[in-house]
Design a protein that fits this description.
Blueprint: E1 6-15, H1 19-26, E2 32-34, E3 39-40, E4 46-47, E5 51-56, H2 65-76, H3 80-84, E6 92-99, H4 111-117
Antiparallel strand pairs: 1-5, 1-6, 2-5, 3-4
């Protein structure tokens, strides 16, 4: 038997900015953030090439991808206007990650989720 599929989703902004500015603009604490130039890596010290502010799904990786996207949208629901106002200064996006170990599979988004993405 193969390993189960794993999924996640997150709202993110990448670029050259101070992540604290995004937090201040929308009033939500990120799941992950870093600044361009920050050093990372335990063995080989590397410099971040860009800044990132991300808000990740809170669900376990075994949850369907659609549910991860919905969870991110729920977290942003009360600050939707602030998120919309991030444009054109920053380029926000919702990223999805899927590890398909069990075939065949796929995913879809219901109409409610699609309208929330607008």
């Amino acid at each position: 038997m193969s390993e189960p599929n794993e999924f996640t989703a997150y709202f993110t902004i990448n670029g050259d900015f101070d992540p604290a500015d995004v937090t201040a603009a929308i009033g939500v604490q990120p799941s992950k953030q870093w600044r361009k130039g920050d050093i990372f890596g335990r063995i080989k010290k590397l410099e971040r090439k860009f800044s990132r502010w991300s808000l990740e799904s809170r669900l376990p990786s075994s949850s369907p991808l659609e549910e991860h996207v919905k969870d991110v949208l729920v977290q942003l629901g009360s600050v939707k206007q602030q998120v919309v106002a991030l444009r054109p200064k920053w380029e926000p996006s919702i990223e999805t990650v899927a590890y398909f170990n069990d075939y065949p599979t796929g995913f879809s988004f219901d109409f409610e989720t699609i309208t929330e993405l607008q």
